[in-house]
Amino acid sequence: MEQAERPPGASSRPVIEVDRLSVSYGDFIAVKDLSLRVEQGELYALLGTNGAGKTSALEVIEGHRKASSGTVRVFGESPADRRAVRPRMGIMLQESGFSADLTVEESVRLIGRLSGRSDSVDRLLGVVGLTHKAATRVGQLSGGEKRRLDFATTVYGRPELVFLDEPTTGLDIQSRDALWEAVEELRGHGSTVILTTHYLEEAQQHADRIGLMHRGTLRTQGTVPELTRALPAAIQFSLSPGTPAPPLGVAQPGGSAYQIETFELQADLKRLLDWADLHDVGLHGLSAAPTRLDDVFRAIETDPVPTPTR
Amino acid sequence: MLPIAYSEFAQIFRNRAVLISNLIMPLAASAFFIFRRDTFAQIGSLGYIAAVLVFTVGAFSLYTTAVTTLSARRQDLFLKRLRSTAASDPAILSGLTLPVAFTALVQVVVMLGIFAAVSGGPAEVALLVVAILATFVMMLALAMATAGLTGSPEQAQVTTLPVSLVTIAVASWVGITGTESLTLLKRLLPGGSATELIVNTWNGGVPFAESLPLLAPTLAWVVVAIVLALRLFRWEPRR
Questions:
Q1: Complex prediction ipTM
Q2: Which residues pair with A89 in a beta bridge?
Q3: Among the partner residues B7, B76, B80, nearest to A100 by beta-carbon distance
Q4: B61 to chain A, minimum CA–CA distance in Å?
Q5: Is B132 helix (H, G, I), strand (E, B) or coil?
Q6: Mutation target vs A (from B15, B85, B234, B238; most A CBs, 10 A cutoff)
Q7: What pLDDT digit, counting tens, does each position of B112-147 carry?
């Protein structure tokens, strides 16, 4: 794979270095030979199907689990050395993990004090929109409010490295926007972000680089343009009966509907429009869509052979 | 450790079920023993009543509450959350169990204080304190080991029964029958030598040098329980 351009704000200092990481549970191999490197200031999204091994890999990188083989360095240290690395990182777990009998304010204050960083609880509750719930016990919060609380404890003290494990699951659109705004604010301070999510459009919109895992291996990684350029874009339209065939190589899904797969979307679209003008042909329901991350995702799911990664 | 302990204190006193079953009930049982002290003194001795008070609080207020707390915190992933911070494992465990241990210690001090006020104080206070502390450390270590086998706070009602019942039964057996017969067996059972030590230090009449070695079996149980805890304790629910 080609070398990705360095994203804005990212430096060449590696924050995370993973080399041939494998994680096994008995005979089951959850992660196999995973190698990746995340630089300071980057937002790296680790995506994959259910059971792809993302959580196992993340748990080793976070220091929650031991590797079966391979090495992981975070800030140049072993992630198991909590005293060295934890004050520099915030971890948003997939499930909240708060005590139901503590209030929102007490929960943020407790986790914040244990983080080794300092911050204002009031400021954080304002960031996640939970100021009015400060005195409410966690057990009385909705699922979305618990996710926001989780995020508040994660970004307490603006950590240098932030893990976000499905951060927007259960959040309404306003809360999602507020969360991403807060993430961008963190990145403005130079924080590195590791993201897992099932919302591909979020990864496509916010990630500098994306790694796609399937069945325990990292199948491919790179920027969105790098990942999508291997697959064709699509132009779709339908023609009235009796219209001559269009000039481009087309796949005809059925009837009068046409689909053109192209690596030269702009040029081929222009050729098609010119042809339609020339022959006075109506292109009904015309749409042109670049390759999306979903398409790459689906291609990897159906690809039995692992794609080499850099 | 202290922030965790502070939050744990708040949680204990906000959870009515824990407050009643693990704190109020042992106090009620202890009050019953003190109220009927003449009857129990005839069966055993005043030292026997003191030992039963210590083990009632130790088994329910300390051991059962600690197992319930640790399994509940693991089940709701609070342990994992705490391990996501810079706090060390010993600091997390100490913070979670300190309030339980402190509360149990206060209960014992209060109940033994009341008992001493109505029936006369112990003969050897210093050694009695050591015996109580050794017993509590043993119960705490057994709690961590048992928590490893306990999937949920509901399960704790079952998994804590063997140790709770055995230690109280041993305390009653040793307290009532003494250790003249089956000496080695009674002293090696969990809580056996501690009961004998509490009885001796409360009733008096046994030289210090004879009582002191009775700490050894209790400390051996502490070591056994710690080894078991290291092998069995889990920070996250089973997948």
A1: 0.84
A2: A161
A3: B76
A4: 19
A5: helix
A6: B85
A7: 999 999 988 899 999 999 999 999 999 999 999 999
